[in-house]
Amino acid sequence: MSRRMRAGWKFRKLDDAIGNYIQVLWLPKIFGEWFLDVWKLYLCPLHAAPKAHPFASVV
């Protein structure tokens, strides 16, 4: 192959334009449950930290 193939979203289509979100389907479902558990652990210390931006992913 001469061109690069990349995974991920190319163009997002909002499932709810008013709520401004997209729905993610996890297959198998347990992966979504694991992600939610890790996400909650990540957000706990982040919640107390001062932020100058609206993003949750900070390094």
Overview of the structural elements:
This protein is mainly alpha-helical. The protein is 34% helix and 0% strand. It contains one helix and no strands.
Entry summary:
With 59 residues, the chain is an all-alpha fold. 34% of the residues lie in helices and 0% in strands.
Spell the H/E element sequence: H
Percent in strands: under 5%
**How many runs of DSSP E, i.e. beta strands?**
0
Ends apart, CA distance between termini: 35 Å
Structural class: mainly alpha
What is the fold's blueprint, element by element?
Elements: H1 29-48
Which labels suit this protein?
about 60 residues, extended, about 35% helix, mainly alpha, 1 helix
